Amino acid sequence: MGLDEVVILPRLVAGIGFRRATPPAEIVALLHRALGEAGLAPERLAAIATAADRAGEPAIREAAAAFGLIPTGLDASALTAADARVVTRSRRIEASRGIGSVAEAAALACAGPEARLRLPRIASAGATCALAMFEDRPSDDSITA
């Protein structure tokens, strides 16, 4: 590959669902587990997303900070719009939030409408995590000659 070629890596987003009493270390460990299962380096993580009403919680803020990120909060309409692409269905979350999985919906919504799950929801005692990716394809005019 020459110096004049554009390399675009897929955007990787972790979606997180968690109970309020979940410690930050548990979320960090779950993120590392998810990245390991997907065979992805932590440096590839572009965003950590969750429901807007949880994005300000200390646990998710501290967990995101461990990756040099700030959590992205997604409102209910964004999560609902991504729900058709969610593959995991939790009856408890469907009853409380109207979506199948907070982690999957948050990852997909944050990564964009063309994103696909790289890793469906995995869980720890108090949190869930899913990974979604969207690969930008350079247009002909974005590649330098």
Beta-strand level of the residues, as a percent range? 15-25%
CATH superfamily: CobE/GbiG C-terminal domain
Report the C-alpha radius of gyration, rounded.
16 Å
Q: Which strands sit side by side, in order, in the main sheet?
A: 3-2-1-5-4
CATH topology, by name, is: Nucleotidyltransferase, domain 5
Count of β-strands: 5
Query: In the CATH hierarchy, what is the architecture at level 2?
Result: 2-Layer Sandwich
Q: Outline the biggest β-sheet.
A: 5 strands, mixed
Shape: globular
CATH class annotation: Alpha Beta
Write the layout of secondary structure elements.
Layout lengths: L10 E8 L5 H15 L6 E7 L6 H8 L6 E3 L1 H7 L8 H7 L4 H10 L4 E8 L3 E8 L11
Parallel strand pairs: 1-2, 2-3
Antiparallel strand pairs: 1-5, 4-5
Helix pairs in contact: 1-2, 3-5
